[in-house]
Task: inverse folding
DNA sequence: TAATGTGAAGACATTCACAGCG
DNA sequence: CGCTGTGAATGTCTTCACATTA
Protein backbone atom coordinates (compact mmCIF):
# COMPACT_ATOMS: atom_id res chain seq x y z
CA UNK A 1 0.00 0.00 0.00
CA UNK A 2 1.75 3.16 -1.14
CA UNK A 3 1.67 6.25 1.02
CA UNK A 4 -0.81 8.78 -0.35
CA UNK A 5 1.83 11.47 0.08
CA UNK A 6 4.85 10.90 -2.13
CA UNK A 7 7.59 11.57 0.43
CA UNK A 8 10.26 8.90 0.21
CA UNK A 9 10.30 6.53 3.17
CA UNK A 10 13.49 6.55 5.19
CA UNK A 11 15.53 3.34 5.34
CA UNK A 12 15.71 2.01 8.88
CA UNK A 13 19.49 2.01 8.85
CA UNK A 14 19.75 5.74 8.19
CA UNK A 15 19.22 6.91 11.75
CA UNK A 16 22.06 4.76 13.01
CA UNK A 17 24.36 6.25 10.43
CA UNK A 18 23.23 9.75 11.43
CA UNK A 19 24.64 9.12 14.89
CA UNK A 20 27.92 8.12 13.31
CA UNK A 21 27.98 11.20 11.09
CA UNK A 22 27.46 13.25 14.23
CA UNK A 23 30.49 11.70 15.95
CA UNK A 24 32.73 12.41 12.94
CA UNK A 25 31.39 15.93 12.63
CA UNK A 26 32.06 16.58 16.31
CA UNK A 27 35.62 15.34 15.81
CA UNK A 28 36.01 17.65 12.80
CA UNK A 29 34.66 20.57 14.79
CA UNK A 30 37.22 19.92 17.54
CA UNK A 31 39.91 19.80 14.85
CA UNK A 32 38.75 23.21 13.64
CA UNK A 33 37.48 22.09 10.22
CA UNK A 34 34.98 24.45 8.61
CA UNK A 35 33.58 22.23 5.90
CA UNK A 36 33.56 18.56 4.94
CA UNK A 37 32.68 16.75 1.72
CA UNK A 38 30.48 13.69 1.48
CA UNK A 39 33.54 11.84 0.19
CA UNK A 40 35.65 12.66 3.22
CA UNK A 41 32.79 11.87 5.59
CA UNK A 42 32.26 8.55 3.82
CA UNK A 43 35.93 7.62 3.92
CA UNK A 44 36.02 7.97 7.70
CA UNK A 45 33.04 5.64 8.11
CA UNK A 46 33.75 3.13 5.36
CA UNK A 47 30.69 4.15 3.40
CA UNK A 48 30.18 5.59 -0.08
CA UNK A 49 29.89 9.30 -0.73
CA UNK A 50 26.58 8.77 -2.51
CA UNK A 51 25.14 7.11 0.55
CA UNK A 52 26.11 9.99 2.80
CA UNK A 53 24.48 12.48 0.45
CA UNK A 54 21.35 10.39 0.04
CA UNK A 55 21.04 9.86 3.78
CA UNK A 56 21.21 13.58 4.45
CA UNK A 57 18.83 14.59 1.69
CA UNK A 58 16.07 12.49 3.24
CA UNK A 59 15.85 15.34 5.72
CA UNK A 60 16.72 18.40 3.66
CA UNK A 61 19.36 20.02 1.46
CA UNK A 62 22.23 20.92 3.71
CA UNK A 63 25.19 20.96 1.32
CA UNK A 64 26.81 23.59 -0.88
CA UNK A 65 27.76 22.35 -4.36
CA UNK A 66 31.48 22.76 -4.94
CA UNK A 67 32.14 23.17 -1.22
CA UNK A 68 30.59 20.40 0.84
CA UNK A 69 28.79 20.71 4.16
CA UNK A 70 29.48 23.33 6.79
CA UNK A 71 30.53 21.31 9.84
CA UNK A 72 28.86 23.41 12.51
CA UNK A 73 25.66 23.80 10.55
CA UNK A 74 25.40 20.09 9.79
CA UNK A 75 25.96 19.19 13.44
CA UNK A 76 22.95 21.33 14.26
CA UNK A 77 20.83 19.72 11.57
CA UNK A 78 21.74 16.17 12.58
CA UNK A 79 21.11 16.88 16.24
CA UNK A 80 17.75 18.33 15.31
CA UNK A 81 16.91 15.24 13.25
CA UNK A 82 18.00 12.89 16.04
CA UNK A 83 16.14 14.96 18.59
CA UNK A 84 19.25 15.72 20.62
CA UNK A 85 19.03 19.48 20.10
CA UNK A 86 17.42 19.40 23.54
CA UNK A 87 18.30 17.71 26.81
CA UNK A 88 16.42 14.52 27.63
CA UNK A 89 15.82 13.53 31.23
CA UNK A 90 16.82 9.97 31.95
CA UNK A 91 16.37 7.70 34.94
CA UNK A 92 18.70 4.82 35.58
CA UNK A 93 17.12 1.77 37.17
CA UNK A 94 19.49 -0.72 38.75
CA UNK A 95 22.56 0.38 40.67
CA UNK A 96 24.52 -2.87 40.49
CA UNK A 97 27.71 -3.40 38.52
CA UNK A 98 26.44 -2.31 35.15
CA UNK A 99 24.17 0.38 36.57
CA UNK A 100 27.05 1.95 38.47
CA UNK A 101 29.15 2.00 35.34
CA UNK A 102 26.37 3.61 33.33
CA UNK A 103 25.74 6.16 36.08
CA UNK A 104 29.35 7.34 35.82
CA UNK A 105 29.50 7.18 32.03
CA UNK A 106 30.32 10.63 30.64
CA UNK A 107 29.11 9.96 27.11
CA UNK A 108 25.42 10.30 27.91
CA UNK A 109 25.69 13.89 29.18
CA UNK A 110 27.88 14.86 26.22
CA UNK A 111 25.15 13.88 23.77
CA UNK A 112 22.28 15.54 25.60
CA UNK A 113 21.07 12.92 28.06
CA UNK A 114 20.98 14.01 31.71
CA UNK A 115 20.63 11.36 34.38
CA UNK A 116 18.11 12.88 36.82
CA UNK A 117 17.64 9.98 39.22
CA UNK A 118 18.89 6.50 40.02
CA UNK A 119 16.67 3.75 41.41
CA UNK A 120 17.14 0.32 42.92
CA UNK A 121 15.06 -2.19 44.84
CA UNK A 122 17.83 -3.29 47.18
CA UNK A 123 17.50 -1.83 50.67
CA UNK A 124 21.27 -2.09 50.98
CA UNK A 125 21.73 0.38 48.12
CA UNK A 126 18.90 2.85 48.68
CA UNK A 127 20.21 6.07 50.19
CA UNK A 128 23.78 5.50 49.06
CA UNK A 129 25.45 8.00 46.78
CA UNK A 130 26.20 7.11 43.16
CA UNK A 131 27.67 9.62 40.72
CA UNK A 132 26.23 12.50 42.71
CA UNK A 133 22.77 10.96 43.12
CA UNK A 134 21.24 9.48 46.22
CA UNK A 135 19.89 6.09 45.12
CA UNK A 136 16.09 6.04 45.47
CA UNK A 137 13.78 3.12 46.07
CA UNK A 138 11.57 2.04 43.17
CA UNK A 139 8.53 2.99 45.25
CA UNK A 140 9.37 6.61 44.47
CA UNK A 141 9.60 6.02 40.73
CA UNK A 142 6.12 7.04 39.62
CA UNK A 143 6.23 10.28 41.61
CA UNK A 144 9.68 11.10 40.24
CA UNK A 145 8.54 10.69 36.64
CA UNK A 146 6.24 13.68 37.02
CA UNK A 147 8.41 15.66 39.46
CA UNK A 148 11.54 15.46 37.30
CA UNK A 149 9.78 15.19 33.96
CA UNK A 150 11.56 11.97 33.08
CA UNK A 151 11.61 11.04 29.39
CA UNK A 152 13.56 7.77 29.16
CA UNK A 153 14.66 4.92 31.37
CA UNK A 154 17.86 2.93 31.21
CA UNK A 155 17.21 -0.56 32.58
CA UNK A 156 20.21 -2.27 34.17
CA UNK A 157 18.42 -4.74 36.43
CA UNK A 158 18.72 -8.52 36.79
CA UNK A 159 16.94 -10.58 34.17
CA UNK A 160 14.55 -12.07 36.77
CA UNK A 161 12.90 -8.73 37.59
CA UNK A 162 13.35 -6.98 34.25
CA UNK A 163 9.86 -7.55 32.86
CA UNK A 164 8.17 -6.52 36.13
CA UNK A 165 10.23 -3.34 36.37
CA UNK A 166 9.52 -2.67 32.70
CA UNK A 167 5.78 -2.97 33.27
CA UNK A 168 6.00 -0.58 36.21
CA UNK A 169 8.00 1.90 34.13
CA UNK A 170 5.51 1.77 31.27
CA UNK A 171 2.65 2.15 33.73
CA UNK A 172 4.26 5.31 35.04
CA UNK A 173 4.06 6.81 31.56
CA UNK A 174 7.60 6.33 30.24
CA UNK A 175 7.64 5.84 26.47
CA UNK A 176 11.32 5.08 25.82
CA UNK A 177 13.44 2.31 27.34
CA UNK A 178 17.05 1.31 26.83
CA UNK A 179 17.30 -2.27 28.07
CA UNK A 180 20.51 -4.04 29.08
CA UNK A 181 18.92 -7.17 30.54
CA UNK A 182 19.46 -10.13 28.20
CA UNK A 183 15.82 -10.88 27.45
CA UNK A 184 13.16 -9.62 25.07
CA UNK A 185 10.94 -7.23 26.99
CA UNK A 186 7.26 -7.03 26.08
CA UNK A 187 6.06 -3.45 25.73
CA UNK A 188 2.79 -2.01 24.41
CA UNK A 189 2.76 -0.29 21.04
CA UNK A 190 3.79 3.31 21.38
CA UNK A 191 6.59 2.53 23.81
CA UNK A 192 10.00 2.64 22.18
CA UNK A 193 12.46 -0.03 23.15
CA UNK A 194 16.15 -0.39 22.31
CA UNK A 195 18.01 -3.43 23.57
CA UNK A 196 21.72 -3.96 24.12
CA UNK A 197 22.67 -7.60 24.68
CA UNK A 198 26.36 -7.76 25.50
CA UNK A 199 26.71 -11.50 25.03
CA UNK A 200 25.22 -11.25 21.53
CA UNK A 201 27.99 -8.86 20.57
CA UNK A 202 30.62 -11.41 21.55
CA UNK A 203 28.71 -14.07 19.64
CA UNK A 204 28.93 -11.93 16.53
CA UNK A 205 32.69 -11.77 17.03
CA UNK A 206 32.73 -15.54 17.39
CA UNK A 207 30.71 -15.89 14.19
CA UNK A 208 33.10 -13.65 12.26
CA UNK A 209 36.15 -15.46 13.60
CA UNK A 210 34.65 -18.89 12.96
CA UNK A 211 33.49 -18.21 9.43
CA UNK A 212 36.59 -16.43 8.17
CA UNK A 213 38.09 -19.69 6.94
CA UNK A 214 34.96 -20.20 4.86
CA UNK A 215 35.49 -17.16 2.60
CA UNK A 216 34.91 -18.36 -0.92
CA UNK A 217 33.33 -21.55 0.24
CA UNK A 218 30.55 -19.34 1.57
CA UNK A 219 30.41 -15.59 1.28
CA UNK A 220 29.25 -13.65 4.34
CA UNK B 1 31.45 -10.16 -9.81
CA UNK B 2 29.45 -13.32 -9.21
CA UNK B 3 30.88 -16.08 -7.09
CA UNK B 4 32.12 -18.93 -9.27
CA UNK B 5 30.40 -21.41 -6.91
CA UNK B 6 26.65 -21.04 -6.82
CA UNK B 7 26.09 -21.15 -3.06
CA UNK B 8 23.70 -18.41 -2.00
CA UNK B 9 25.40 -15.58 -0.11
CA UNK B 10 24.17 -15.07 3.42
CA UNK B 11 22.45 -11.77 4.27
CA UNK B 12 24.47 -9.83 6.81
CA UNK B 13 21.53 -9.60 9.18
CA UNK B 14 21.15 -13.36 9.49
CA UNK B 15 23.92 -13.91 12.03
CA UNK B 16 22.40 -11.40 14.42
CA UNK B 17 19.08 -13.20 14.21
CA UNK B 18 20.83 -16.52 14.84
CA UNK B 19 21.89 -15.19 18.25
CA UNK B 20 18.27 -14.31 18.94
CA UNK B 21 17.04 -17.73 17.83
CA UNK B 22 19.56 -19.21 20.24
CA UNK B 23 18.19 -17.21 23.17
CA UNK B 24 14.63 -18.30 22.45
CA UNK B 25 15.70 -21.90 21.97
CA UNK B 26 17.54 -21.84 25.30
CA UNK B 27 14.38 -20.51 26.95
CA UNK B 28 12.34 -23.28 25.32
CA UNK B 29 14.83 -25.88 26.48
CA UNK B 30 14.55 -24.62 30.06
CA UNK B 31 10.76 -24.82 29.71
CA UNK B 32 11.12 -28.46 28.66
CA UNK B 33 9.86 -28.03 25.08
CA UNK B 34 10.95 -30.79 22.71
CA UNK B 35 10.18 -29.16 19.38
CA UNK B 36 9.34 -25.73 18.00
CA UNK B 37 7.87 -24.59 14.70
CA UNK B 38 9.20 -21.74 12.59
CA UNK B 39 5.90 -19.96 13.24
CA UNK B 40 6.26 -20.10 17.00
CA UNK B 41 9.91 -19.09 16.83
CA UNK B 42 8.98 -16.17 14.60
CA UNK B 43 6.13 -15.01 16.83
CA UNK B 44 8.47 -14.69 19.79
CA UNK B 45 10.86 -12.49 17.82
CA UNK B 46 8.41 -10.48 15.74
CA UNK B 47 9.61 -12.03 12.50
CA UNK B 48 7.90 -14.08 9.80
CA UNK B 49 7.96 -17.86 9.77
CA UNK B 50 9.36 -17.86 6.25
CA UNK B 51 12.29 -15.76 7.35
CA UNK B 52 13.15 -18.13 10.19
CA UNK B 53 13.10 -21.09 7.82
CA UNK B 54 15.12 -19.30 5.15
CA UNK B 55 17.70 -18.13 7.69
CA UNK B 56 18.22 -21.66 8.96
CA UNK B 57 18.40 -23.28 5.55
CA UNK B 58 21.36 -21.10 4.61
CA UNK B 59 23.30 -23.46 6.86
CA UNK B 60 21.54 -26.79 6.41
CA UNK B 61 18.22 -28.63 6.67
CA UNK B 62 17.47 -28.92 10.35
CA UNK B 63 13.67 -29.22 10.40
CA UNK B 64 11.21 -32.09 10.24
CA UNK B 65 8.19 -31.45 7.98
CA UNK B 66 4.99 -31.73 9.97
CA UNK B 67 6.87 -31.42 13.26
CA UNK B 68 9.17 -28.42 13.35
CA UNK B 69 12.66 -28.26 14.76
CA UNK B 70 14.00 -30.34 17.65
CA UNK B 71 14.97 -27.73 20.26
CA UNK B 72 18.09 -29.42 21.60
CA UNK B 73 19.34 -30.33 18.16
CA UNK B 74 18.81 -26.86 16.78
CA UNK B 75 20.63 -25.29 19.74
CA UNK B 76 23.62 -27.42 18.84
CA UNK B 77 23.43 -26.42 15.18
CA UNK B 78 23.13 -22.71 15.91
CA UNK B 79 25.99 -22.81 18.41
CA UNK B 80 28.11 -24.58 15.82
CA UNK B 81 27.24 -21.95 13.21
CA UNK B 82 27.99 -19.09 15.60
CA UNK B 83 31.19 -20.80 16.71
CA UNK B 84 30.09 -20.98 20.35
CA UNK B 85 30.21 -24.78 20.45
CA UNK B 86 33.60 -24.21 22.05
CA UNK B 87 34.85 -21.91 24.80
CA UNK B 88 36.61 -18.75 23.68
CA UNK B 89 39.28 -17.18 25.87
CA UNK B 90 38.72 -13.49 26.42
CA UNK B 91 40.82 -10.77 28.00
CA UNK B 92 39.23 -7.68 29.46
CA UNK B 93 41.26 -4.51 29.14
CA UNK B 94 40.27 -1.64 31.40
CA UNK B 95 39.18 -2.20 34.99
CA UNK B 96 37.35 1.09 35.50
CA UNK B 97 33.60 1.47 35.92
CA UNK B 98 32.52 -0.28 32.77
CA UNK B 99 35.34 -2.81 32.86
CA UNK B 100 34.41 -3.84 36.40
CA UNK B 101 30.81 -4.30 35.37
CA UNK B 102 31.80 -6.40 32.36
CA UNK B 103 34.17 -8.49 34.51
CA UNK B 104 31.29 -9.45 36.77
CA UNK B 105 28.78 -9.96 33.96
CA UNK B 106 27.50 -13.54 34.02
CA UNK B 107 26.18 -13.56 30.48
CA UNK B 108 29.56 -13.99 28.83
CA UNK B 109 30.38 -17.27 30.56
CA UNK B 110 26.88 -18.62 29.88
CA UNK B 111 27.38 -18.27 26.13
CA UNK B 112 30.87 -19.75 26.00
CA UNK B 113 33.18 -16.82 26.66
CA UNK B 114 35.61 -17.25 29.55
CA UNK B 115 37.40 -14.20 30.89
CA UNK B 116 40.97 -15.43 31.42
CA UNK B 117 42.66 -12.19 32.44
CA UNK B 118 42.00 -8.54 33.24
CA UNK B 119 44.40 -5.73 32.40
CA UNK B 120 44.78 -2.08 33.24
CA UNK B 121 47.45 0.60 32.96
CA UNK B 122 46.72 2.25 36.28
CA UNK B 123 49.26 1.39 38.97
CA UNK B 124 46.52 1.94 41.53
CA UNK B 125 44.50 -0.95 40.08
CA UNK B 126 47.21 -3.45 39.16
CA UNK B 127 47.35 -6.27 41.68
CA UNK B 128 43.85 -5.68 42.98
CA UNK B 129 41.26 -8.43 42.73
CA UNK B 130 38.35 -8.15 40.32
CA UNK B 131 35.84 -10.94 39.83
CA UNK B 132 38.40 -13.53 40.92
CA UNK B 133 41.22 -12.16 38.80
CA UNK B 134 44.26 -10.25 39.92
CA UNK B 135 44.41 -7.20 37.65
CA UNK B 136 47.56 -7.31 35.51
CA UNK B 137 49.53 -4.49 34.00
CA UNK B 138 49.36 -4.07 30.22
CA UNK B 139 53.09 -4.84 30.04
CA UNK B 140 52.16 -8.47 30.63
CA UNK B 141 49.59 -8.53 27.84
CA UNK B 142 51.65 -9.92 24.98
CA UNK B 143 53.03 -12.76 27.12
CA UNK B 144 49.56 -13.60 28.39
CA UNK B 145 48.14 -13.90 24.89
CA UNK B 146 50.35 -16.90 24.24
CA UNK B 147 50.34 -18.30 27.80
CA UNK B 148 46.55 -18.28 28.10
CA UNK B 149 45.78 -18.70 24.41
CA UNK B 150 43.64 -15.58 24.31
CA UNK B 151 41.21 -15.31 21.39
CA UNK B 152 39.36 -12.02 21.87
CA UNK B 153 39.71 -8.77 23.75
CA UNK B 154 37.00 -6.63 25.31
CA UNK B 155 38.15 -3.02 25.32
CA UNK B 156 36.74 -0.85 28.12
CA UNK B 157 39.39 1.84 28.27
CA UNK B 158 39.14 5.65 28.08
CA UNK B 159 38.75 7.10 24.61
CA UNK B 160 42.13 8.86 24.81
CA UNK B 161 44.15 5.63 24.97
CA UNK B 162 41.79 3.35 23.04
CA UNK B 163 43.58 3.45 19.67
CA UNK B 164 47.01 2.90 21.26
CA UNK B 165 45.76 -0.05 23.30
CA UNK B 166 44.05 -1.40 20.20
CA UNK B 167 47.30 -1.24 18.21
CA UNK B 168 49.11 -3.07 20.99
CA UNK B 169 46.41 -5.73 21.11
CA UNK B 170 46.54 -6.25 17.36
CA UNK B 171 50.32 -6.37 17.48
CA UNK B 172 50.11 -9.15 20.04
CA UNK B 173 48.17 -11.25 17.54
CA UNK B 174 44.56 -10.77 18.70
CA UNK B 175 42.13 -10.96 15.79
CA UNK B 176 38.83 -10.11 17.46
CA UNK B 177 37.98 -6.99 19.47
CA UNK B 178 34.78 -5.87 21.19
CA UNK B 179 35.15 -2.12 21.67
CA UNK B 180 33.19 0.00 24.15
CA UNK B 181 35.15 3.22 23.70
CA UNK B 182 33.07 5.78 21.77
CA UNK B 183 35.36 6.15 18.78
CA UNK B 184 35.99 4.31 15.51
CA UNK B 185 39.08 2.17 15.98
CA UNK B 186 41.35 1.59 12.99
CA UNK B 187 42.29 -2.06 12.60
CA UNK B 188 44.10 -3.91 9.79
CA UNK B 189 42.09 -6.17 7.52
CA UNK B 190 41.73 -9.60 9.04
CA UNK B 191 41.06 -8.24 12.51
CA UNK B 192 37.39 -8.43 13.45
CA UNK B 193 35.92 -5.47 15.28
CA UNK B 194 32.52 -5.04 16.90
CA UNK B 195 31.68 -1.72 18.52
CA UNK B 196 29.13 -0.87 21.17
CA UNK B 197 28.53 2.86 21.59
CA UNK B 198 26.18 3.38 24.50
CA UNK B 199 25.37 7.01 23.70
CA UNK B 200 24.36 6.05 20.17
CA UNK B 201 21.74 3.71 21.59
CA UNK B 202 20.16 6.56 23.55
CA UNK B 203 20.28 8.72 20.43
CA UNK B 204 18.28 6.08 18.60
CA UNK B 205 15.69 6.25 21.35
CA UNK B 206 15.66 10.02 21.00
CA UNK B 207 15.19 9.68 17.24
CA UNK B 208 12.28 7.30 17.68
CA UNK B 209 10.64 9.50 20.29
CA UNK B 210 11.19 12.67 18.26
CA UNK B 211 9.89 11.33 14.98
CA UNK B 212 6.81 9.58 16.31
CA UNK B 213 4.70 12.68 15.77
CA UNK B 214 5.74 12.56 12.13
CA UNK B 215 4.03 9.25 11.35
CA UNK B 216 2.22 9.72 8.10
CA UNK B 217 3.99 12.96 7.40
CA UNK B 218 7.10 10.84 7.02
CA UNK B 219 7.25 7.09 7.31
CA UNK B 220 10.13 5.60 9.26
C1' DT C 1 35.56 23.64 -11.10
C1' DA C 2 34.34 20.71 -7.43
C1' DA C 3 30.96 19.43 -5.10
C1' DT C 4 25.80 18.38 -4.15
C1' DG C 5 21.16 16.27 -5.12
C1' DT C 6 18.71 12.75 -7.44
C1' DG C 7 16.23 9.59 -10.85
C1' DA C 8 17.38 5.12 -12.57
C1' DA C 9 19.74 0.84 -12.16
C1' DG C 10 21.45 -2.59 -9.58
C1' DA C 11 22.17 -5.38 -5.44
C1' DC C 12 20.35 -7.17 -1.55
C1' DA C 13 16.82 -8.92 1.70
C1' DT C 14 12.20 -10.41 2.72
C1' DT C 15 7.85 -12.43 1.77
C1' DC C 16 4.87 -15.30 -0.88
C1' DA C 17 3.07 -19.53 -2.22
C1' DC C 18 3.26 -24.10 -2.93
C1' DA C 19 5.62 -28.70 -3.81
C1' DG C 20 7.08 -32.33 -1.05
C1' DC C 21 7.72 -34.84 3.01
C1' DG C 22 7.09 -37.18 7.60
C1' DC D 1 -2.60 -33.03 7.88
C1' DG D 2 0.99 -29.70 9.35
C1' DC D 3 5.18 -28.12 8.62
C1' DT D 4 9.57 -27.55 6.21
C1' DG D 5 12.38 -26.02 2.23
C1' DT D 6 12.62 -23.15 -1.70
C1' DG D 7 12.09 -20.82 -6.40
C1' DA D 8 9.73 -16.72 -7.76
C1' DA D 9 7.97 -12.27 -6.76
C1' DT D 10 8.14 -8.42 -4.17
C1' DG D 11 10.07 -4.89 -1.45
C1' DT D 12 13.95 -2.28 0.41
C1' DC D 13 18.48 -0.31 0.28
C1' DT D 14 22.65 1.08 -2.06
C1' DT D 15 25.24 2.57 -5.90
C1' DC D 16 25.73 4.73 -10.31
C1' DA D 17 25.98 8.53 -13.23
C1' DC D 18 25.01 12.94 -14.43
C1' DA D 19 22.30 17.36 -14.45
C1' DT D 20 22.71 21.15 -11.52
C1' DT D 21 24.55 24.69 -8.75
C1' DA D 22 27.61 28.06 -5.97
Result:
Amino acid sequence: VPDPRDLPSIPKTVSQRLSQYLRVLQDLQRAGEETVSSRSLAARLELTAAQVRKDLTYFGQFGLPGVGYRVVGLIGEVRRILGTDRTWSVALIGAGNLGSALARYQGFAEQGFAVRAIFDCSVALVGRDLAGHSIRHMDEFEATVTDEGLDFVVLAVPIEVAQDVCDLVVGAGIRGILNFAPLRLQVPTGVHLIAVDLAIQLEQLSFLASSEGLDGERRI
Summary: The two ends of chain A are 33 Å apart (CA to CA). Residues 9, 11-14, 48, 50-51, 54, 64-67 of chain A lie near DNA strand D (CB under 10 Å from a C1'). Chain A touches chain B through 70 residues (CB under 8 Å). Strands of chain A lie at 35-36, 69-70, 88-93, 113-120, 129-130, 133-134, 136-137, 152-155, 176-179, 192-195.
